[in-house]
Amino acid sequence: MTVGIVTDSTAYLPGAIASALAIEVVPVQVIVDGVAYDEFRHITVDEVVAALRKGKQVTTSRPNPEQFVDAYSRLAQRGCEAIVSVHLSSQLSGTYESALLASQQSPVPVSVIDSQGVAAMTGHAALAGARLAKLGADLATVTAEVEARCAASTIEFYVDTLEFLQRTGRISNMKSKVGTVLSVKPILHMVNGQVVQHELVRTAAKAVDRLVELATANVTGPCEIAVHHVEAADRADQVAQRLCEVLNISSVTVTPAGAVIAAHVGPGAVAVVVTS
Question: Quick one: three-class SS letters along the chain?
């Protein structure tokens, strides 16, 4: 059986790798003052950050089910007999729901998976599924592998402010105000697919130190690690270097997050994903 893989743009897979593994990537939308743009295709991180700084209304929107039907159909036309479709947390976006609706119109069976994560939490799972599918694994085996990789992923992330997460409803207004009043820097993570405040630290420098400590505590053996950032390349490189030193590894993948994540966390954010 030939199994195809579909994910969404918030997995932040390098284009060359997604293409090499024939992974279909469906774009999530960013909406700026009522105008919708496909992530990567029609809007950049810089444009989203500029809009946030100008106080424009910035939010995000799931892809239409028709976009998933098109992706499933393309894979079927290329000879796929079944598909695994893995997406960012249903607690954060309706993308999973769109994929689920589309699966009912797919020309081949589709296993739709809620990663309960975001960014490389989804991306690592999609890559693992694609590699296994390339070896000829059947739908049940690929589905189990993708679900296992999702369950084995954690994310710790630092944001300069909770303002943007509060604006888009991804964290409570009360917690946002607490962080502002105390003038502290928040570190967050994800629990059961939701963004949860993990700790508050006093300075950005201490936040970087603590981010590395929390991320390395999630390492229990061989794993994949990715560092994402929004307009914070130097800070992300610093985190990656520290991770290499602490874990005694040669390198860590550093990837800019896209426009969708930027819309929710704002500039200065850094995240570390660990997938065991």
Answer: CCEEEEEEHHHCCCHHHHHHCCCEEECCEEEECCEEEEECCCECHHHHHHHHHCCCCEEEECCCHHHHHHHHHHHHHCCCCEEEEEECCCCCCCHHHHHHHHHCCCCCCEEEEECCCCCHHHHHHHHHHHHHHHCCCCHHHHHHHHHHHHHCEEEEEECCCCHHHHHCCCCCHHHHHHHHHHCCEEEEEEECCEEEEEEEECCHHHHHHHHHHHHHHCCCCCCEEEEEECCCHHHHHHHHHHHHHHHCCCCCEEEECCHHHHHHHCCCCEEEEEEC
